[in-house]
Amino acid sequence: MKRIAIFASGAGTNAENIIRWFNTEEDRGGRVALVVSNKPDAQVLRRAGALGVATEVVTSAELKDEDFVGGMMDSYGIDVVVLAGFLLMVPPYLITRYDGRMVNIHPSLLPKYGGKGMYGMRVHEAVVAAGERETGITVHLVSERYDEGRILFQATTEICGDDAPEDVARKVQELEQLYFPRVIAELMEGMW
Fold first, then answer.
1. Which of 2, 47, 101, 106 is catalytic?
2. pLDDT tens-digit profile of 133-168?
3. CA distances (Å), 57 to each of 21, 44, 61, 142, in order?
4. How far apart are CA 63 and CA 8, in angstroms?
5. DSSP states of 117-173 as a string?
6. In this structure, what is the dihedral angle of CA atoms 26, 182, 120, 111, given to the nearest 10 degrees?
7. 124 labelled catalytic
8. Cis geometry, peptide bond prior to residue 92 (ω within 30 degrees of 0)
């Protein structure tokens, strides 16, 4: 069974969903063993702790320290890394270490509305301002450039003429909750 680490910086709704999906009685090929955050007050840490998952807080300086992070990942036996709202750039050594086994989710249909600084509500505001008729999610492998790794999966949702960014956010979150854990499972099965 693969051991998963989730890196997240915020509320942790995707992290909680992934934990609940994998850490059930049913064997889904993996278990979330660790949640890592760069923010000691991030809600994701409380969510993970309440579900019995170990948590670690790493500073941006510690994240750049290959020995420190490598030792932490080894101590939990991590096989797969999932970025679920992690707002720091992942260092190249970690991308190389988990080559083909590190995924991110982005709240738009990449390559549209991706790149540095494009996350969360900023993406939904840009999508609405541009008059897009659809948006969605993209799950992709992590590369050394923001949101440019190989796309594994996309799902779309319609944008209605009167949708506000908050409406778009809700629709996108529904897609994230439905598909993200399944794509992670498929990655671990070697489907990608």
1. 106
2. 999 999 999 999 989 999 999 999 999 989 999 999
3. 23, 11, 12, 21
4. 13
5. T--HHHHHHHHHHTT-SEEEEEEEE--SSTT-SPEEEEEEEE--TT--HHHHHHHHH
6. 170
7. no
8. no
Measured in whole angstroms, the distance separating CA 24 from the mean position of its chain's CA atoms is 20
Q: pLDDT band at residue 11, thresholds of 50, 70 and 90?
A: very high
Summarised one tens digit per residue, pLDDT across range 53-67 is 999 999 999 999 999
Q: Output the pTM of the full model.
A: 0.95
Q: Which two tokens stand for residue 42?
A: 């991030």
**Of residues 59, 44, 53, 123, the one with CA closest to residue 91:** 59
Q: Are 38 and 63 spatial neighbours (Cβ–Cβ below 8 Å)?
A: yes
Question: What is d(CA 126, CA 3) in angstroms, rounded to the nearest whole number?
Answer: 36
Helices (H) and strands (E) in the chain, counts: 7, 7
Where residue 113 falls (left for φ over 0; alpha for ψ -120 to 50; beta otherwise) is left
Pairing of strands 80-83, 102-106: parallel
